[in-house]
């Protein structure tokens, strides 16, 4: 025994010693304290610390589909037109001006001569033609190719029916003139132009790393990326942060006030909120519901709530016999106490929804007869053959696993039980499974949401046509389709168009294949030093105009 | 055909009697036992004892601190926390007991057969256990639960499948020892079938270590369930477990600390009690470690 | 060493089973990698399926995957089209490995100290206090301990950063403590038991009889006894640390592998699930092996037993 011990005694003590020393190092490193917060140093240096919600999938505008990517791409790239952050009115961006033909179908954009790529190359109309061709190339698999649908032949090119891009309604008349021809006058067309799928990309860079239809090449990495936006990509640390810095070659660089933005992939909302409180973030991507009251009372300046162009609703599967009866659907829709849900479950200032289109969508407000009316609902249910819920088959609500959805489903479960005496089961599925189930029509009632792509009722109404991939209710109506697909696009004036769309929405609400529940709000925590970030319906910031101004006595 | 009892009756009673005497002297273990008994009784009688109905919510009340009406406060939906913790405890304990029972059943049978038969069969069976030990089970459990949805049954099977391995090893070792002892050889010589011998002689004699290990497996299973619930993969609402209640409580621990503290206490104390009881049982039942060493 | 070689050879079929099972499991799962809330046009789905060869038969896919794997290529990530799985894994690895290492240091450092303290004076206050704390450590899950540490040291006392990894000084302390705590508790219990075992051995009594100073007895002879069970525990502990890192990385916003794994499963990012599963499996197999080798190296009796080829 002695022999054995002697052999490794030294090693052993050394090992233990090393372990203890390292441990001490860890602890001492901790003792140093955390120093200056990001917000304090950021305010001094003009760096915005932005809670971005998730790691960006990609930084290729023709590949990505998410909101976190949106916030980075609008810093790195710029479209022909952008929206005013407060009013959402179109403003010149890469295009310094544009002209619309008398029939409302041909836009002629004049590209500003000072527009540059971040490597110094001139930005021309040809860049847009090539970029849009890339965005529509079938092999690329751009999920947002449908944004181009108003343009002549764009859809045909995207589906591969048409292989000659020159037949698509996009022409570079000269270096600085871009002409876009639409199928119909499309009042919201200018709005689409600042969606990232319509952003230009730098052809030479992309072709250096791959072909036009190739996705996932390394052109989007820091060091390779060439953009035309107010900021340029400096660093992209996987799952840690994305850093952009001011692009000095940007045409309007002198009006860009931030010197950089750090985006954090803050997936855990609880952690994100704590980061905000510890001064590590200027802005959070969301706010945990449980924290709303705390901020309302303690730091109302930091809590930013604004209406958001989206609606939370339930889909009926109208293919099922008991849900095919419009009276049943109406009875169910009329016994959802939206006020109670909004006030007690959501608590974020959301608006009860009685229509699919959020009110005042660029001047459009749907008229809806839908109201909370238990007595009328009972009559309807009785008329449908189920007096006091007798004989009504058990109803099932499907939602994707998420606490908020569950709370709403539980609340509605109780409301229907109390008001109509019908049994409701609730069923949750993991997101991908839920999507499959819904697409296969394997549900009775399913939770759903729709966020408008652009501020126009059409964004909420064209999805309910029979073969629309987003319909999923099995409901269709020829009159509705005629109004939405044929009459509204060719309407002569805004008023006339809104009247047609309003008529269509009335048909929809009368048939009630969905139960509108509430209209979204965007909720963020924003440090009071952040200026120039007004809330808007699209929750769309303009980083160009944001600046940081420390308060004398910041909380 | 009655044979000599597996363990002589007198010897048996003194063995268990001694164990019980030793256990009673261990105050921590005894406290654990009492605490657990209370928890189990409460869990069994929850539908009768709970002050409120499980799904009853009072949206207008919201989260409120402990009060006369709600001893442990209410959550953000105005649901009584005491009720939720009681029902959550039922689920946590159920998962703990059932998954452990699954592990116990597989592990004891497998280990007993391997240890009893011995030879090549034993070598092959234990090699299989070695191989399974090398599998990244946690990863598989997560994958299974994500992919096939989160059901209690899957949870039981998944957790049971992980925990039986150690049980099998322990039982096998124990059985090997016992098999060499005289009364078993006597039974063999009397022409008893192997199954009868396993059932009558081997299993009762391996009971001590199995009880100890079972008591220590339950808390680790409950922790595993809590961990999976935290990832959103464990028990699904409207059912609830302590792990799930804790994960909700964490979100609002600064505003409504009682939503975290009480479920946290319930889980931690129960695990505490189980571990103390397990340690106490080990000291009491395992002659080798009976010399008054509290911890393992 | 024949022992190592044979253990490595044994690991190969295990890994093959893991790979094959995972491969078919993820493809059997409902929901595909490209399904989305906003209906994606059939052309786009077709393009994506073609790009990732998901339009081929499962067997063709399997063959192609295994061929790539043999070359060490885990394929492209479906969720992050610009990234290869290799890149994602090796991008996340440093943080996870560092976190695991520090947690292990915390566990071994605190655990050994507590275990030795307790084991040297059994059944006294010096025993009960650390052992009760250790029990608490075992009973308190990381997702409870982590937020509590954040609350106390991050939010109330403001001593330490509450998130991040390598951004602010001291931001590695709380995650390491959170992850290491439970294992510190186990190690404390193991080393205490080991120490007690050794202290009752004859040669310690002989040493005492020879009049050696107590601390020399402990440092020369008893430590080994305390270390043995701890080292045997390190292999399984490593697997547990990996699982724990899922939680800790989420709570503390750490750019590690654990966060990816759970996300990948939810996203049906087939290649990413495969890649991380295989990677973790290999790591666990290797760590178990390492822990066994260490234990053998420290214990000649066990080495002998292993040579004879005992089952367990």
TrEMBL record, chain A:
Gene3D superfamilies, per database record: Dipeptide-binding Protein, Domain 1, Dipeptide-binding Protein, Domain 3, Periplasmic binding protein-like II
Pfam families: SBP_bac_5
The keyword Transferase appears for this protein: no
Domain of life: Bacteria
The entry's keywords: Signal, Transport
Chief place where the protein resides: other
Lineage: Bacteria, Pseudomonadati, Pseudomonadota, Gammaproteobacteria, Cellvibrionales
Source species: Candidatus Litorirhabdus singularis
Sequence similarity: Belongs to the bacterial solute-binding protein 5 family.
Domain called Solute-binding protein family: residue spans: 89-471
CDD domains for the chain: PBP2_OppA (cd08504)
Localisation: Cell envelope
Protein name in the entry: Peptide ABC transporter substrate-binding protein
InterPro entries reported in the protein's UniProt record: Peptide/Ni-bd (IPR030678), SBP_5 (IPR039424), SBP_5_dom (IPR000914)
TrEMBL record, chain B:
Main location: membrane
Superkingdom of origin organism: Bacteria
Entry-linked Gene3D superfamilies: MetI-like
Keywords: Cell inner membrane, Cell membrane, Membrane, Peptide transport, Protein transport, Transmembrane, Transmembrane helix, Transport
Tagged with keyword Cell inner membrane: yes
Stored PROSITE patterns: ABC_TM1
Protein localization: Cell inner membrane; Cell membrane
Membrane topology: Multi-pass membrane protein
UniProt xrefs under SUPFAM superfamilies: MetI-like
Domain ABC transmembrane type-1: 89-278
Transmembrane segments: 30-54, 91-116, 128-147, 153-171, 210-236, 256-277
Family: Belongs to the binding-protein-dependent transport system permease family. OppBC subfamily.
Official protein name in the record: Oligopeptide transport system permease protein OppC
């Amino acid at each position: 025994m002695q022999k054995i011990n002697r052999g490794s005694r030294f090693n052993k003590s050394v090992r233990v010693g090393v372990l203890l020393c390292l441990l001490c190092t860890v602890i001492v490193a901790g003792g140093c304290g955390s120093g200056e917060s990001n917000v304090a140093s950021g305010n001094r240096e003009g760096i915005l610390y932005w809670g971005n919600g998730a790691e960006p999938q990609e930084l290729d505008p023709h590949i990505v589909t998410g909101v976190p990517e949106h916030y980075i791409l609008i810093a790195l790239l710029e479209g022909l037109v952008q929206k005013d952050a407060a009013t959402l009115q179109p403003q010149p961006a890469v295009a310094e001006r544009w002209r619309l033909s008398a029939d409302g179908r041909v836009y002629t954009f004049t590209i500003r001569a000072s527009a540059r790529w971040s490597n110094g190359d001139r930005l021309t109309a040809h860049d847009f033609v090539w970029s849009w061709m890339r965005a529509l190339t079938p092999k690329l698999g751009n999920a947002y190719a449908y944004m181009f649908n108003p343009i002549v032949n764009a859809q045909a090119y995207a589906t591969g029916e048409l292989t000659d891009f020159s037949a698509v309604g996009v022409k570079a008349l000269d270096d600085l003139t871009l002409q876009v021809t639409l199928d119909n006058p499309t009042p919201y067309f200018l709005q689409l132009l600042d969606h990232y799928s319509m952003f230009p990309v730098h052809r030479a860079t992309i072709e250096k790393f791959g072909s036009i239809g190739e996705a996932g090449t390394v052109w989007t990495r820091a060091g390779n990326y060439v953009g035309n936006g107010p900021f340029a990509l400096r660093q992209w640390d996987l799952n840690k942060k994305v850093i952009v810095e001011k692009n000095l070659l940007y045409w309007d660089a002198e009006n860009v006030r931030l010197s950089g933005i750090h985006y954090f992939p803050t997936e855990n909302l609880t952690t994100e909120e704590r980061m905000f409180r510890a001064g590590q973030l200027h802005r959070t991507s969301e706010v945990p519901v449980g924290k709303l009251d705390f901020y309302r009372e303690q730091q109302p300046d930091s809590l930013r709530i604004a209406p958001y162009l989206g609606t939370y609703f339930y889909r009926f599967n109208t293919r099922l016999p008991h849900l095919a009866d419009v009276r049943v659907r109406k009875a169910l829709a009329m016994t959802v106490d939206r006020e109670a849900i909004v006030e007690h479950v959501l608590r974020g200032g959301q608006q009860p929804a009685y229509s699919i289109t959020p009110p005042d969508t660029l001047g459009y407000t749907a008229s809806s007869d839908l109201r909370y009316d238990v007595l009328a609902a009972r009559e309807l249910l009785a008329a449908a053959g189920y007096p006091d819920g007798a004989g009504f088959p058990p109803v099932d609500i499907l939602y994707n696993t998420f606490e908020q959805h569950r709370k709403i489903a539980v609340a509605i479960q109780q409301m229907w039980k109390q008001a109509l005496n019908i049994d409701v089961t609730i069923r949750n599925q993991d997101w991908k499974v839920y999507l499959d189930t819904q697409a296969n029509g394997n549900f009775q009632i399913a939770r759903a949401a729709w966020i408008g792509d652009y501020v126009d009722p059409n964004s909420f109404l064209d999805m309910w046509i029979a073969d629309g991939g987003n319909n999923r209710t099995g409901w269709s109506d020829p009159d509705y389709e005629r109004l939405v697909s044929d009459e509204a696009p060719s309407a002569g004036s805004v008023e006339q168009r809104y009247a047609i769309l309003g008529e269509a929405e009335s048909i929809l609400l009368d048939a009630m294949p969905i139960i509108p529940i509430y209209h979204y709000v965007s909720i963020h925590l924003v440090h009071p030093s952040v200026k120039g970030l007004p809330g808007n319906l699209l929750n769309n910031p303009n980083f160009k105009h944001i600046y940081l101004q420390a308060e004398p006595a910041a909380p | 055909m009655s044979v000599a009892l597996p363990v002589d009756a007198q010897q048996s009673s003194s063995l268990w009697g001694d164990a019980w005497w030793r256990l009673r002297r261990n105050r921590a273990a005894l406290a654990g036992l009492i605490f657990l008994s209370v928890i189990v009784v409460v869990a069994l009688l929850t539908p009768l004892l709970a002050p409120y109905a499980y799904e009853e919510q009072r949206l207008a009340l919201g989260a409120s601190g402990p009060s006369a009406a709600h001893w442990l406060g209410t959550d953000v939906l105005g649901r009584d926390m005491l009720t939720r913790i009681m029902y959550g405890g039922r689920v946590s304990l159920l998962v703990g007991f059932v998954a452990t029972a699954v592990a116990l059943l597989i592990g004891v049978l497998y280990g007993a057969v391997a240890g009893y038969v011995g030879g090549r069969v034993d070598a092959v069976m234990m090699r299989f256990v070695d191989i399974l030990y090398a599998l990244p089970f946690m990863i598989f459990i997560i994958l299974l639960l994500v992919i096939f949805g989160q059901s209690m049954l899957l949870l039981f099977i998944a957790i049971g499948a992980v925990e039986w391995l150690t049980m099998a090893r322990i039982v096998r070792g124990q059985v090997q020892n016992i098999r060499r002892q005289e009364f078993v050889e006597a039974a063999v010589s009397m022409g008893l079938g192997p199954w009868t011998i396993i059932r009558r002689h081997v299993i009762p004699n391996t009971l001590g270590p199995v009880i100890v290990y079972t008591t220590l497996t339950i808390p680790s299973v409950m922790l595993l369930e809590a961990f999976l619930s935290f990832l959103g993969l464990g028990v699904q609402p409207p059912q609830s477990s302590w792990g799930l209640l804790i994960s909700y409580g964490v979100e609002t621990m600064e505003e409504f600390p009682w939503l975290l503290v009480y479920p946290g206490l319930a889980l931690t104390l129960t695990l505490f009690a189980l571990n103390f009881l397990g340690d106490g049982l080990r000291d009491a039942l395992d002659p080798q470690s009976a010399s008054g060493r509290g911890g393992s | 060493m024949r022992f190592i070689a044979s253990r490595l050879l044994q690991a190969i079929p295990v890994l093959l089973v893991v790979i094959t099972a995972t491969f078919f499991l993820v493809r059997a799962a409902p929901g595909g990698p490209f399904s989305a809330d906003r209906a994606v046009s059939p052309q786009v789905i077709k393009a994506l399926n073609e790009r990732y060869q998901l339009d081929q038969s499962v067997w063709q896919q399997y063959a192609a995957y295994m061929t790539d794997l043999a070359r060490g290529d885990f394929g492209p990530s479906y969720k992050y089209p610009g990234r290869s799985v290799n890149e994602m894994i090796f991008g996340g690895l440093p943080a996870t490995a560092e976190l695991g290492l520090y947690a292990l240091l915390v566990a071994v450092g605190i655990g050994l100290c507590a275990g030795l303290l307790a084991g040297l004076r059994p059944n006294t206050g010096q025993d009960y206090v650390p052992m009760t704390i250790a029990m608490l450590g075992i009973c308190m899950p990381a997702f409870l301990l982590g937020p509590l540490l954040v609350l106390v040291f991050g939010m109330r006392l403001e001593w330490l950063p509450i998130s991040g990894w390598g951004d602010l000084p001291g931001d590695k302390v709380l995650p390491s403590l959170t992850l290491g705590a439970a294992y510190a508790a186990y190690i404390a219990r193991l080393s205490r038991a080991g120490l007690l075992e050794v202290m009752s051995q004859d040669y310690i009594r002989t040493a005492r009889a020879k009049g050696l100073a107590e601390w020399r007895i402990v440092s020369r002879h008893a430590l080994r006894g305390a270390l043995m069970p701890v080292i045997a525990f390190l292999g399984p502990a490593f697997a547990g640390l990996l699982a724990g890192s899922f939680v800790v990385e989420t709570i503390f916003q750490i750019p590690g592998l654990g966060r990816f794994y759970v996300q990948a499963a939810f996203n049906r990012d087939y290649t990413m699930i495969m890649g991380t599963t295989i990677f973790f499996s290999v790591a666990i197999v290797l760590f178990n092996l390492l822990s066994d080798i260490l234990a053998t190296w420290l214990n000649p009796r066990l080495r002998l037993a292993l040579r004879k080829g005992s089952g367990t």
